[in-house]
Amino acid sequence: MQKNTRIALLIDCDNVSSSSIEGVLEELAKYGTVNVRHAHGDWKSTHLTGWIEKLHPHAIRPVQQFAYTTGKNATDSAMIIDAMDLLYSNTVDAYALMTSDSDFTPLVMRILESGMPVYGFGQKKTPLPFVHACSQFIYTENLQAESEDQSGNAVAVTKRSRKEIRGDAALVKLLRTSVEQTSEDDGWAHLSKVGSYISNNSSFSPVNYGYKKLSDLIKASELFEVEVRNGNKSIYIKDAR
pTM for the whole thing? Predict the structure, then answer.
């Protein structure tokens, strides 16, 4: 994706923590410019105090949504309307939805039908239907310098070890299949093609395993031979079996 890609970041402040917003914006900077930054919620609620402190430093526009009826999430409806308005405005090329609510799964599918990628960001409690629907999904706990355990104690986000990576059967299958499908006759595959294949077939992100780059995860797994070619400009990998 080109760096001039315009990305709309829509935040469901009722269902996601403000502590990872810096990491979300840093991650999105890899794919383009976040020219739309809308934070939806009832800003009269003390529940959003943490978000209020993040708005101005990150140029995020708060979108007020009153809770008209007890037990009904008016924020969801307002955010969906906002997303559809942007869809027909032709002012964005991609979406980023920051939420842990699976109710947005149909919205993701509708945006994908329009040919735009959707980057999802949510907590590890996010239901899998929403996770899998996104073009790429990153757990926000992995974007924080420190996360908190159930007791509120700070714990560092750690990288998956070689053993842990190899023990994840679904991950190993995804990596091996992607290399197999993109490899040339000699069995070597260009890493960028492998990454594109993975993006087209899953919501995978190396960040969820503690690695910023796919190449770092590949090397840590020791499942593949790795060669750097063309003056350190290209990385090729081959199944080590």
Answer: 0.83
